[in-house]
Amino acid sequence: MTIRSIARVTVLSLLWKFTSAQFCTSLNSDTWDGYVDAVSEALDQTGFAILCPFEISGDGCKGLEEYPEGLRIKEGQSQVLISCDSFLFGYHQQSTECVIDCPGRHITVPESSSLTLERMVFSGATESSITVEEGGTLTVINSIFKDNKASDGEGKGKGGAILALANSVIHVYYSQFVRNTADYGGAIFGGDFSFVAVVESMFEENNASISVSCWSSPKFCNSQA
Fold first, then answer.
1. Exposed/middle/buried for residue 175 (C-beta within 10 Å: 0-12, 13-18, 19+)
2. Which of 24, 89, 179, 217 could form a Cys-Cys staple with 52, CB 3.0–4.6 A?
3. For 190-206, what is each residue's pLDDT tens digit?
4. How far apart are CA 188 and CA 130, in angstroms?
């Protein structure tokens, strides 16, 4: 994603503020079903979801077992945006984070689809927080991944925070990866011929047998401090 593309995402967020009386979309409940319903409806209507701050954890994660792939973006959807914004009815809310702290997987990006995540917090995943399928594209901006893991029980778990399969494209800007764990690529793993670019992001206390931070085959991730 170029600087121009990042600017486009910012403009989309601003347009949402000035064209909607509510500015951000509140979840009906701080549950997995509430999250899926709010995001799916927004994406179907506009192609982007600007969410009011929430936290889904504990009992709120019930129902996630019905979504083995987490929230799955529709195949072929491009320029999809999920963003967190605390601006509600003209006032900033006290909470400023959109937090998903649940086991399993949080999001799947399918082939030929592209997703941008902005100002989100993902924690507690046990099957990689986000999986990008072959040919998919993911852009992460100002987001946090912490305490996620990937383990298949055979020592081959890949990408505690982000698992990018072959020929996928990953861009990460100004984000944090903390205490994520996998056998390969504690934070990020990129499969064959994937492209992973990380710009001005922090990796701290991630753990893996091979490459604690980021691994992309056939070479290590392209990272800029």
1. buried
2. 24
3. 999 999 999 999 999 99
4. 10
